[in-house]
Amino acid sequence: MDRYGKLFIKASVIYLGLGVFFGVHMSFADHGINELRFIHVHIMLLGFVAMIIFGVAYHILPRFNARPLPHPSWVPLHFWLSNAGLWGMCVMYALGGFYTDGPPRMLFGVFGLMEGTGIFLFIINIFHVLGEDPEIKAEPKR
Ligand code: HEM
Q1: pTM of the model
Q2: What domain count does the chain have?
Q3: Atom in ligand 1 nearest the alpha carbon of residue 37
Q4: In a domain, 141, yes or no
Q5: Backbone Cα Rg of the chain
Q6: How close is the Cα of 53 to the center of ligand 1, in Å?
Q7: Is residue 135 in a domain?
Q8: Which of 31, 86, 120, 141 has the highest Cβ tally under 10 A?
Q9: Is 99 contained in some domain?
């Protein structure tokens, strides 16, 4: 399996553990619940759910459709953008950056943009992988 496909899946299960940890903590205590809700939701969805899908999709879809990724060099970039973006968003949110309109809010936005950019790299790569190959013709029916 490709290194970054595996790294996406390893990261996703780490985020699963972290998200569950926050969830259990939130079940017992209300302290910082608003910040924790944002962190819990995004760690679970952008961390666990999205990253397990990215890892499996990068590994399986090119094989299923017999078309390689058009931009394999984007996969590591996607991995680092996703992880830095997610951590940056969560840390800035915990520090209250989302609730200001100064530089901390701008920084929160930059991390969100990193997260979003990584996702668009994935979308472009996967759309090409799922394209029809005009040279492969269906077998004539008998
Ligand atoms: C580039 C990716 C993303 C960015 C930058 C982002 C950013 C944000 C922001 C700024 C908020 C508002 C927080 C507040 O009002 O205090 C928010 C809330 C939320 N987001 Fe995201 N988000 C992203 C992706 C996602 C995805 C993929 C999902 C779900 C599949 C998601 C689910 C939610 C939910 C459920 C809330 C409401 C949380 C609450 O009630 O406290 N987000 N997000």
Answers
A1: 0.90
A2: 1
A3: 41
A4: no
A5: 19
A6: 18
A7: no
A8: 86
A9: yes
In a domain, 140, yes or no: no
Q: What digits encode the pLDDT tens for the residues 11-69? A: 999 999 999 999 999 999 988 899 999 999 999 999 999 999 999 999 999 999 999 99
CA distances from 64 to 19, 67, 68 (A): 31, 8, 10
71 C-alpha to center of ligand 1: Å? 28
User: Closest ligand 1 atom, CA of 115?
Assistant: 1
Range of the domain at 103: 3-129
- The reply to whether ligand 1 has any atom less than 6 angstroms from the CB of 37 is yes
Three-class secondary structure assignment of 82-102: HHHHHHHHHHHHHCCHHHCCC
Residue 70 has which token pair?
């058009």
Gap from CA of 38 to ligand 1 centroid (Å): 7
112 lines ligand 1 (CB under 6 A): yes
Q: What is the pLDDT of residues 84-132, one digit of tens each?
A: 999 999 999 999 999 999 999 999 999 999 999 999 999 999 999 998 8
